[in-house]
Design goal:
Glutathione S-transferase Yfyf (Class Pi), Chain A, domain 2; 41% helix; 387 residues; 15 strands
């Protein structure tokens, strides 16, 4: 899988950018704050419809467009070639007129092969694995960040996961709204029955997909971790579903939904007391153990970085094995921070895929001796100039 065309209009630091990348490795050099991460984030957004960086949709639109255009819009478009054929993808973020307090509301538009579609129809048409300095947060950050990681990863190769996640979030919102009403003694407890059915069905799909993905990622990452230079240490990845104890062990798929539904029903009264749903994938977490100890607490920064690299490399393998088509690799300013051994392991993976986009502030890392056939560019003033 690879991009054959990329077009950015009014996207953060880019007024306009057109690129026709070939297969192979592309190295983009630029100073800090030149917009290197913005470029890779735009590509990743085409794969998942979500930015990998913090901020709201208005932040995607370049400020000069907001100042000068009556209805400013950011547009990300690409043509993608893969084993299943070629597709054209487009995401537009449109800002409305400012309200009395100066705030602007935004809307999104999605197109697949020129036809207006839903966001879920774009997810997975392009698959990417993005390595960045922010990957340390997967190990040491918040549970919500790890859930976001799972969503961005699994959704790219499992359409049923995308549908279940969207449905689950809608149902969870409705159920929590009803719980708050019941907390105020407005309504009857049995009104929860419909939402319990919907929640357990969608939730079971999410939990089981996360179990399968993390089993494969964990097994592969455990093997890669010592190869990355941490000999004598072990890495273990544990799925920590937010379920009653008896449901946290592996349960046959045909029994899981019914038992999940029963657990939700039995916990209704406590949910009403709290005004929120206690059990379900919206409270899941993932544990990383290095040498049997919690990596978020006891591991060094170097150990955490190695674990994150092992996880990302495993993600490349999982995406390729699941679909039969390797993802596009995005390496965002990480190679210049790594030692030669770690760089070598990542560059080895880069030669196993169709296309790699690498950003770096240092043109010598990776140097021409490491990647003699790479196409190289310099990023200046929002323009990519071939070297």
């Amino acid at each position: 899988m690879h991009l054959t065309r990329l077009s950015l209009t009014n996207v953060r630091t880019y007024r306009r950018l057109e690129l026709e990348p070939s297969r192979g490795i592309h190295v983009i050099t630029g100073e800090n704050a030149a917009g290197k991460s913005n470029l890779l984030d735009a590509v990743a957004m085409l794969a998942t419809t979500r930015s990998h960086r913090a901020g709201n949709d208005l932040d995607m639109i370049t400020w000069s467009a907001i100042d000068e255009d009556p209805l400013p819009a950011a547009r990300i478009a690409a043509d993608v070639a893969g084993n299943a054929g070629s597709v054209s993808l487009e995401i537009a973020i449109i800002a409305g007129e400012p309200s009395a307090d100066g705030a602007r509301r935004t809307s999104r538009r999605f197109r697949l092969n020129g036809i207006a579609r839903r966001a879920s129809d774009l997810i997975g048409q392009l698959r990417v694995v993005m390595f960045s300095a922010d990957d340390l947060a997967i190990i040491s950050g918040s549970p919500s960040g790890r859930r976001r990681y799972l969503d961005l990863t699994i959704s790219q190769f499992d359409p049923s996961y995308v549908r279940a996640s969207q449905r689950y979030n809608r149902v969870l919102q409705q159920r929590n709204s009803l719980l708050r009403k019941l907390q105020e003694r407005r309504g009857q407890l049995d009104e929860l029955a419909f939402w319990d059915d919907e929640l357990s069905e969608a939730g079971a799909t999410i939990v089981q997909a996360r179990q399968r993905a993390l089993e494969r990622l964990g097994r592969d990452a455990a093997g890669r971790y010592p190869e990355l230079g941490s000999e004598g240490e072990t890495l273990e990845i544990r799925y920590q579903p937010a379920l009653p104890g008896e449901l946290q062990s592996t349960i046959p798929a045909d029994e899981f939904q019914a038992q999940f539904r029963q657990a939700i029903e039995e916990g209704r009264q406590q949910d009403v007391w709290r005004g929120a749903t206690r059990f379900g994938p919206h409270r899941d977490d993932v544990g990383f153990l290095i040498g049997g100890h919690d990596a978020a607490i006891s591991a060094s920064r170097g150990q955490q970085r190695t674990a994150a690299l092992a996880l990302r490399l495993s993600e490349v393998a999982l995406s390729t094995e699941t679909t039969g088509d390797p993802p596009v690799l995005l390496l965002d300013d990480i190679l210049s921070e790594l030692d030669a051994h770690h760089r070598d392991r990542i560059l080895h993976a880069a030669y196993a895929v169709d296309q790699v986009l690498i950003t770096t502030p240092d043109g010598d890392r990776p140097g021409r001796s490491e990647l003699p056939e790479a196409k190289r560019y310099v990023l200046e003033d929002g323009e990519l100039k071939p070297l």
